[in-house]
Amino acid sequence: MSATLQTVADALGVSRSTVSNAYSRPDQLSPALRERILETARELGYSGPNPTARSLRRGRVGAVGVLFTGSLTQAFTDPYAVQFLGGLAQATERRDTGLLLVPLSADDPDGAQRALAEAAVDGFCVYCAPNWQGSLAVINARSLPVVTTENPTEAGAATLVVSIDERGASRTAGEHIVGFGHRRIAVLDTWVTTERRNGPVRLPDPESLPFYISRERICGVRDAVVAAGGSWSDVLVLNARDNTRADGAAAAAHALDRAQRSTAILATTDVLALGVLDAMAARGLRPGHDVSVTGFDDIPDADRSGLTTIHQPSTEKGRIAGELLLDAPEDPALRRKVLPTSLIVRSSTGPAPVGSSS
Amino acid sequence: MSATLQTVADALGVSRSTVSNAYSRPDQLSPALRERILETARELGYSGPNPTARSLRRGRVGAVGVLFTGSLTQAFTDPYAVQFLGGLAQATERRDTGLLLVPLSADDPDGAQRALAEAAVDGFCVYCAPNWQGSLAVINARSLPVVTTENPTEAGAATLVVSIDERGASRTAGEHIVGFGHRRIAVLDTWVTTERRNGPVRLPDPESLPFYISRERICGVRDAVVAAGGSWSDVLVLNARDNTRADGAAAAAHALDRAQRSTAILATTDVLALGVLDAMAARGLRPGHDVSVTGFDDIPDADRSGLTTIHQPSTEKGRIAGELLLDAPEDPALRRKVLPTSLIVRSSTGPAPVGSSS
DNA sequence: TTGAAAGCGTTACCAA
DNA sequence: TTGGTAACGCTTTCAA
């Protein structure tokens, strides 16, 4: 039904190669002939080489796969993730490469594995996917390049990595808080427990957390607390159902409404931290006075809300991930990049309220 | 280098077809043989049929292209867009189909056309793309199914459409506002003018707006104003640089800071409307009292902020778009769906301040 | 239940 | 500058 390269070649009495060249290597034939070919193609309704056939022949697809766990909506709810993706798109676009979204639904592991095995891509970017271990084997079997922003330790030598010092950055926030004299501290994170609920959680040892980013960020806080002479067991751990503002608010309520109210809440993402601010606003509590709050990521809303947070170069992270993927260096040292972070102090943090140290 | 189906076949002394069947049609061979084949494949590092080759042979790619204009980041800044995409993903995932993001950069039209011509997809979804007309020809030339949520009129009979009554819905919001006695009314939208700036704009005839959604939503407001005996020339038109909260706030400033302050601002998206609320908060103005504000879309933040808005079923819209694309009905009547909308009244609207009708 | 053969639509190489 | 030929890796009849 649809016209092929052959159709056009026949119509003009030239060979397939020539028509192919008209599209893919314009310098290989006379401009006049090329124009005639393109013209005839237009008349015949031939819209250029079939992308799939071209990919097969060339051995390059022109797309990279982006893996998510959880729903797409959930992934894009976090501005950090969106910025990262934007950076990734910048890099790939420049190389005429598209982005294929591969959502890995947790309730259908077989489907997820099939999706990975059957995705027509030149490489994978693993992102927003704390529990991608099951997928790893499938991906590696395809011997395609993979870049990740997580699990640098477990990633294996073949994997490309662009990351930040999660633990160190988080510790900076912790030090900022203990430096202000806070002693009734809470940390707020998602998926700290397998139960999906908003509220306090017992977490004897944060090093045992299975998900890399959670583990590192929470341990960073612990390190700061312990270094200041505090004890991890005094830190209240709050779990949010999902990484959303609403769940952040709901979880924070448990720290705000208890008799001995926490004077500082350190959230592991800005989205959660903004939820904390929502919960405080609803109670008439002043950020940086009654309760101090920190986030992580430095999304645009953080600035608007005066949130003290850890800045990470989200867009650049995506861009570098894309460049690494499309142009993987041989040198192992160049296959892993660690990007800088910084503490941005805004109005949501301040000295611990007087008399709160008891 | 990488193992192929042939490699596995040779290793076992069976034919290619049999190995192929082991993967694609398990019922065509004995379980024992199948297991042996899969086992050998694993040993040989063969990770299953090459997706591209399979696509070529089958004539189906297993991906649909999603077109954006503007940057990805910008597109995903609007929760409406994210919800729509989530719905689309739901539908495609169920059919083992991926989503290929195709960002069409405005400053590189040639690159954009190439991206469209070369995208390996089974269909296209056009979305968040007010000015996609240039792409239309390229897409149509490929004779692939296309679904759009915009431009139902210009779309052509072949195009699948899932839309809402933009003008009617917007008119509802307008009627709500004039019903409250407001007469100093402003409308706030993006890209009303080619100049990319925040502020008032002269717009003698909204019917002349080139972008469908802008035109329809603004005309809806005009209809309501005129029906109530008002005049379009009394309506202040504000342009926001981009569809962001910050630009919404900046543009709204012009309506809030003028001598005869607008008593009602109707934004064409919730994101812009939330920006208006930000600008009001900064000035100590009370929504629904000093100034009434409406939005459009009913994103989650709208509820949180008490924003009166038009609800549209964003996720369902995406889901239906996906289903239409993957299973296009022959019957022309079924190829176009119009989804319902409703006015959600919250606290951001109220009676016009006393004495404001002058 | 298994195998042989014929493409799917293109590009790359080499020769003319 | 142009054309012939041989893949790219797979699926799908159809026959055994």
UniProtKB/TrEMBL annotation, chains A, B:
CDD domains recorded: HTH_LacI, PBP1_LacI-like
Domain HTH lacI-type: 3-58
GO MF, one example: DNA-binding transcription factor activity
Gene3D superfamilies, A to Z: 3.40.50.2300, lambda repressor-like DNA-binding domains (1.10.260.40)
Keywords from the named record: DNA-binding, Transcription, Transcription regulation
TM stretches of this protein: none
InterPro entries: HTH_LacI, LacI/GalR-like_sensor, Lambda_DNA-bd_dom_sf, Peripla_BP_I
Pfam families cross-referenced by the UniProt entry: LacI (PF00356), Peripla_BP_3 (PF13377)
Superkingdom as given in the UniProt entry: Bacteria
Protein name: LacI family transcriptional regulator
Taxonomic path: Bacteria, Bacillati, Actinomycetota, Actinomycetes, Micromonosporales
